[in-house]
Design a protein that fits this description.
38% of the residues lie in helices and 31% in strands. With 177 residues, the chain is an alpha+beta fold.
Length: 177
């Protein structure tokens, strides 16, 4: 009985080794992320033109949507929602006004969001795309923050759903994970 199990094990091991050698001898191409001088992510090669455009749209929209200055909240909100679908802009505006606005005014907060990396998740099809974005959200100043305090950085990752409308990618959802 033990001899039969040994034979099966050896046959399985030989098959695994043989199958491992059946793949391409060329290594898979890699994409090295590139950074701009300010440390923000420069979109690299991520696939076809639609995929590249979707990633660019997400990396442009997130800093606008997640940065704000308590002195110009209406301007920040208008710029952010201009990059969104109508339905998501309504939802975003409601959430922003219910949570962020009062906190930002109360704390006199100024935040800046900086994209660190991004890429397509799954296929880009039927005018829809899902992009994962890694970003830092930095509390630049607030009434509670002293000049000598270290910067407060929140490292986040979010899924950004996009829909292509009239030739432009628009944000249809932002979901942290």
């Amino acid at each position: 009985m033990i001899a039969v199990h040994k034979k099966r094990f050896l046959v399985a091991a030989v098959l695994l080794i043989a199958l491992a050698g059946c793949g391409s001898s060329k290594p898979a191409p890699t994409v090295t992320p590139k950074l701009n001088a300010d440390g923000s992510y420069r979109v690299g090669t991520v696939g076809n033109a639609d995929a590249v455009a979707a990633v660019k749209a997400a990396t442009r929209a997130l800093p606008v949507a997640l940065s704000y200055d308590y002195r110009s909240l209406d301007t920040s909100l208008s710029k952010a929602t201009a990059l969104m679908t109508t339905a998501f802009a309504t939802k975003f505006r409601t959430t922003f006004n219910a949570t962020t606005r009062s906190m930002a005014i109360d704390k006199q907060a100024i935040t800046s969001a900086l994209v660190r990396g991004a890429g397509i998740v799954g296929p880009v099809a039927n005018g829809r795309a899902l992009v994962v974005v890694f970003l830092d959200q930095v509390l630049v100043s607030s009434k509670d923050k002293k000049a000598s305090d270290p910067l407060s950085v929140s490292q986040n990752r979010v899924h950004v759903s996009l829909v292509k409308q009239n030739g432009r990618w628009r944000v249809s959802d932002i979901e942290p994970f």
